[in-house]
Specification:
Blueprint lengths: L3 H9 L20 E5 H10 L14 E3 L17 E4 L3 E7 L19 H10 L5 E7 L9 E3 L1
């Protein structure tokens, strides 16, 4: 578009935004769907007492509520498997995400911390979640079960 800043400002109804390129930080998309469990999030929280840990830092598309006592990184066992979500959406788990410095960055009410990435790197080879591709698209809603096939 001719003026992307003007479009963005109109869309957001704000005058204080503009698009800018980030040359110093590399970004890349990995796969269409990122799935993270509450068991893994709880492990991160337990590993970093006093550090605000929130799923927003990891940008998952889907957070799966796991039963109490579920081992952290349960997502690792899903790699190579398929799952059905809700009434028939099917996904295939391909690999986990290699995490980058963005998990440490401040966002909204979450302060910057250098501890998140260090902790994930030391404990789990810098990986956190299960990445998937969509085999059968469909609608999913909050509370839909994820059933491994």
């Amino acid at each position: 578009m001719a003026d992307s800043d003007a479009y963005l400002r109109a869309y957001l109804r704000r005058d204080d935004v503009e698009l800018a390129s980030e040359r110093e930080v590399s970004h890349f998309d990995q796969l269409p769907v990122s799935v993270l469990t509450t068991a893994t999030l709880d492990w991160v929280r337990h590993s970093l007492p006093g550090v605000p840990v929130d799923e927003r830092r990891f940008r998952p598309n889907i957070v799966v509520r796991t039963p109490p006592g579920t081992a952290p990184f349960v997502e690792d066992g899903w790699l190579g498997r398929t799952a059905v979500i809700g009434e028939g959406t099917r996904i295939e788990f391909v690999r986990s995400s290699e995490r980058c410095v963005m998990v440490n960055e401040a966002q909204a009410d979450l302060p910057r911390t250098s501890l998140l990435l260090k902790t994930i790197a030391a404990a789990h080879d810098n990986r956190l979640d299960a990445l998937a591709r969509v085999l059968t698209p469909g609608h999913i809603t909050l509370g839909d079960p994820l059933v491994l096939a």
